Amino acid sequence: MIGLRNGYQEATEAYQLPRLVRLAPNLYGACFTLMKLVPARFILRRAAEAGLLTPETVIVETTSGTFGLALAMQAVHLDRRLILVSDPVIDERLYRRLTDLGAVVERVPAAAGAGVGGYQAARLARLAQIRAELPASFCPEQYTNPDNPRSYAAVSELMLEALGQVDCVIGPVGSGGSMCGTVTHLRTVVPECRAIGVDTHASVLFGQPEGKRELRGLGMGMLPANLDHRVFDHVHWCSASVAYQATRQLHQRHSLFMGPTSGAAYQVARWWAEANPDALTVVMLPDEGYRYQDNVYDDGWLTEHGHHQVTVPTTPTQVDHPATASGHWDTYDWHRRAYDEVLTGLDTRPVSAR
Amino acid sequence: MSKPVLRYLRKVHSPPRSHPAGAEVGVGYAPAHHGELLQGVFEDSTGQLRRALVTLLVPDRGSRAIFHPSQDHWGVVGTPELIKVRRAAILALRELSTHPTPAKGGQIEITSDIPRGIGMGSSTSDVTATIRAVANYHGVTLPREAVGRLAVQAECASDSIMIDDRVVLFAHRDGLVLESLGHRLPPIVVVGCDTDPGRIVDTLRFPPADYHDDDLAAFRVLRAGLRRAVATDDVALLGRVATASARLNQRFLPKPNLPPLLELCQRLGGAGVQIAHSGTVAGLIFDARQPHLAHTIDQCVEGIAALGLGLTAVIGADQLTAGWHTAGPVATHPGVAA
User: Fold this and answer.
1) Which H or E run includes B249?
2) Which of A210, A316, B84, B140 is positioned for an S-S bond with A329, CB 3.0–4.6 A?
């Protein structure tokens, strides 16, 4: 009960929860080894409990990112086969790690990117083909499965127990699972808890026109069902240069060796926490820096790609519409509205509140 | 105004002055409760989900049981509404059957000042007092957890009034302590009322809440919040957890007056509102350390009266002198036999 520490039953259990590390008087970082373990472990264990993972069942998913790695780790514990369908441009180190964990990684051909719907459509088509050939398969569907946000109750639980009333949570947004799940569950106890989503330019998540994205690990080309826009009070967009520089500062100032999505979130969080000294703030730092040692953590690479030369603004630029965000660091007051409400310009707030 | 209450309480709480000549009896007492600070479904240490709750005790109300042993007869039919008391007495006798000179059967006499059917634990209190009375006759003090287990066996579901030395998350249908949250609650004063005057809830007939996955996730967070609130004496957090639990329960046994009570609580600077999840009582939670406490409680009592609701209890305000009138019935049920 109190004070008694136990060993863990398996690695994913040991790694899944973040460490809460103080970064400023009112700011804590939720430092994950691999945040996607939270939904991957929860979804697969629930599927196993529900009898959906028979020994013949193959777990399948389209991902070339950290969710795939988390699935591969949990698949080892569950002794199940895993097939991942990825873009041709999968990170080579990640690929080696996935295959070492026994996962089969299918890369759609490079030519598929030119087709209708791009890689996303090609991956989904290949996934459907694979499933049709298998006697039994299970797809975790991180973008639509409500167990994804639900799994983050464990993180809300940790924050509430360790820190008490959290006034604001800041974090990068992808599937929507971590931010929507963590904040929604915290709001059971602290309804006024603020949520600040961090995205990057040319990502469609919060209404930017889609385009080429430079920042690794952040930004999406489609809207996931698990992203409930009504959770967010504010949204920020950070450029790759801003995120990379902040990632290094997070390491230099706090010894936290994290990836660039963590850097983007840290950039927003330290500014917000300083501007709101009475608000206890937690920033989500989703994964570690090992995959980025040859770029984000390499000064030569940063200079070569022009990231060192960018002067990071001290405050974000406030924009009137999400589509107009075009600097290195922009912010928009989302006001817990639905996507359509914001993007169609339909303002349902009372006139006095506009 | 409060005089009759005090007299009743004395009658209930003091040990009997005289026993029938020559007969040795066992005496047991158990307090009332005012519903829960939290109730839901939680994982035990093995990961199994169990329905569980955290009880809010009302120490100055309760039931007293006197056990009149018999060596020559087994069970005799008793008052029908006290069937659980009879069951508790039999279970306690069975538990103590290895005692060198066990009683064979006997009679239980209950005196109680707990209102019935509104979620203040009248039945659990009767049952617990009975188990303690039987044990007391045998010169035994049963461990609190054993009393809890027997109480649940006797009445299917019990609040954890018998675990009175610490704050526990108690699996009320299994009779198990899932977690000890701490030695005592943060310093609170709770002003209680009956939210639905006249309505009687049959705790056992009321179907168990059908929680879904999002509720289970919410309960994890509430449990963590309460754990911290107890460990750090955080009344504000405790109030928030209780309020959240009360709101979640509105889907299963709605309290028609919860919204105005929440509003009253907020207006008076209270921490939150707790409820009986299978009853009709609710309580406004205040920090006992706050300035002008007595005045705030006066205002709260007035506010509750203005809503047309009856006061049920003022918990934790022993040091205050004001006499809040919370008279309840005193019932005596003699002649129940085990």
Assistant:
1) helix B235-249
2) A316
Q: Are strands A281-285 and A27-31 parallel, antiparallel or unpaired?
A: parallel
Cβ–Cβ < 8 Å for B294, B319: no
The pLDDT, as a whole number, for residue A220 is 86
CB contact under 8 A, A189 and B221: yes
Q: Are B249 and B187 in contact (CB under 8 A)?
A: no
Please give the residue that has the higher pLDDT: either A348 or B284: B284
Instruction: Answer whether residue A348 shows pLDDT above 80.
Output: no
A231 neighbors A149 (Cβ within 8 angstroms): no
Q: What is the pTM of this model?
A: 0.89
| CA A16 from centre of chain | 14
Decide: B28 and B128 in contact? Cβ < 8 Å.
Answer: yes
How many Cβ atoms from other residues are within 10 Å of residue B301's Cβ? 19
- Give A130 or A353, the one with higher predicted confidence: A130
As given in the structure block, the two tokens for residue B254 are 């709605």
CA A270, A273, A277 angle in degrees (round to 5)?
Answer: 145
The phi, psi pair for A84, rounded to 5°, reads -115, 135
A190–B217: do the CB atoms touch at under 8 Å? no
pLDDT, tens digit (0-9, with 9 covering 90-100), for A304-313: 999 999 999 9
| Residues in B lying within 8 Å of A, measured between beta carbons | 179-180, 213-214, 217-218, 220-225, 227-228, 231-232, 234, 236-237, 240-241, 244, 248
**Cross-strand partners of A106:** A85
Using alpha carbons, select from B104, B75, B93 the residue that is nearest to residue B153.
Answer: B93
Tokens 């939270």: give the residue: A38
